[in-house]
Write a structure and sequence with these properties.
By secondary structure, the protein is mainly α. It folds into 2 domains: about 55 residues; about 90 residues, UraD-like (Orthogonal Bundle), CATH 1.10.3330.10. Helix 1 packs antiparallel against helix 2 and helix 2 packs across helix 3. The longest helix is centred in the last third of the chain and has 23 residues. The radius of gyration is 16 Å and the shape is globular. The mean pLDDT is about 90.
């Protein structure tokens, strides 16, 4: 069994810059051996869902803008950089980049957290379409959608770290 320190070190970044999720999952004793992507995801997701709305909002706010200033400055986490590059967001035309920048600003203004989508398997056009559709959502609906996307991102990250399990 991993120590608390080792567990948090290994899985503390699965929910973007939010190691408290891994700490709480470990402390709850909800992480069964052997460690599999599905088991660790279930434990982390339970801790995320048990967090206060304000804490979950903090997790949402910890995510970078898509194709935003952190990407340009090369300051994304390694996971975020790979995810955005895999969707082609590191190869936008100037016009596409301007549209993402415009949508990012409008989205954050409306919801007070960045647009979040699990980009694996999507391309820039898919992401832009989802962005344009979701910006019309109400605040509660979009909060729920964004938290679901965060959980999906966590599962994808865990699947790259651990065996799937049964």
């Amino acid at each position: 069994m991993l120590s608390r320190e080792d567990f948090v070190s290994r899985f503390g970044g699965v929910f973007e810059h939010s190691p408290f999720i891994a700490e709480r999952a470990y402390d709850a004793g909800s992480v069964p051996e052997p460690l599999t992507a599905s088991a660790v995801h279930a434990a982390l997701t339970a801790a995320f869902r048990a967090a206060s709305r304000e804490e979950r909002l903090g997790v949402l706010r910890a995510h970078p803008d898509l194709a935003g200033r952190l990407a340009i400055a090369g300051e994304l986490t390694e996971d975020s950089r790979k995810e955005q590059a895999g969707a082609g967001l590191d190869r936008l035309s100037p016009a596409e980049h301007a549209r993402f920048t415009e949508l990012n600003a409008a989205y954050v203004e409306k919801y007070d957290f960045p647009f979040i989508i699990a980009v694996k398997g999507l391309d820039k056009d898919d992401i832009l379409s989802a962005f344009e559709l979701r910006i019309g959502n109400g605040r509660d609906e979009e909060f729920a959608t964004a938290t679901t996307q965060v959980e999906r991102i966590a599962l994808l990250r865990l699947k790259s770290m651990l065996p799937e399990g049964k």
